[in-house]
UniProtKB/TrEMBL annotation:
Annotated protein name in UniProt: Glycoside hydrolase family 32 protein
GO molecular function: hydrolase activity
Gene3D superfamilies, per database record: Glycosyl hydrolase domain, family 43 (2.115.10.20)
Lineage, broadest ranks: Bacteria, Pseudomonadati, Bacteroidota, Flavobacteriia, Flavobacteriales
Keywords for the protein's UniProt record, in alphabetical order: Hydrolase
Keyword Hydrolase: yes
Matching InterPro entries: Glyco_hydro_beta-prop_sf
Amino acid sequence: MTSVSYGRIFDPANDLPTGYTHASNPVGIVVPGSESLIRIFFSSRDTSGKSHVFSADYKFENRKFGLLSTSIKPILSPGEPGLFDCDGISVGSVVMDEEVLRLYYVGWQLQKSVPWINTIGLALSDDFGKSFTKSGRVPVMDRSEEDPFSMSYPWVEKVNDRYEMWYGSNLVWGKSKQDMLHVIKRANSVDGKQWVRNSADLFQLTKDMTAMSRPSALRTSDKTILLLSIKDGNNNYGIWQAQTINEIDWDLKKMEIESTGLWDEKSQSYGSFFIFENTVFILYNGNEFGKTGFGVAELELSDRKFTV
């Protein structure tokens, strides 16, 4: 598969309210009832380094993404001290479920013995993402025997009458970020809140990989395509793709998205799929995990029969 980059479409230095930096982990939806309104959710950091959720609205015309507006304040913020998301909220995925938009996110809790402990939360919106209400004060997926250390970026889809999740989990943890080995796992749910986990790692880390994170899935008529952010031994992230026809045997390859400037010349990460007018786009971050903003690329596919 090949891709065509449209370049950067959001620059935090120019497009964010005063007092916030970064535009990380972008995910997009087409707003129901609109012809061409695309709403992108992302995480931005305040002056204390805590992440909040913002949104930006775009119109796609003449092969260009035009920024219409950015939320003037966060639409979702960290919880009160001591809660699972008290030190930040990072976007995982958004799922339209009839008239309710579900936002699955990572809740951050900073620690002393390890850098952080992350778990998975859920927020709900009845106005297509203009505002959100958390489903509760505790995670919808907490640590467990299968995931005892820390978890990351959930990608959730509704498949028929069930919810399917891909998420990241630490195999080991330690005092430093470099002590982390992080893999991708799966879980499923009837209601989107109570999850049954599959303890098996989806991929095996090779000797030159230390972490896989931020999965994003696309299902066509004959295969499943998964985007992954993979960190190498030099602490650099790149976007990879994995394809399967049976969801058992995967073909994993580095994905090449053309760099369009200084903003993404060193790193591309946190890719996510969204579909607009039967075209697949990939939102992604550039250098420094969203400090330079996010861009978009178009994925060139021969099979455009999407099942989710």
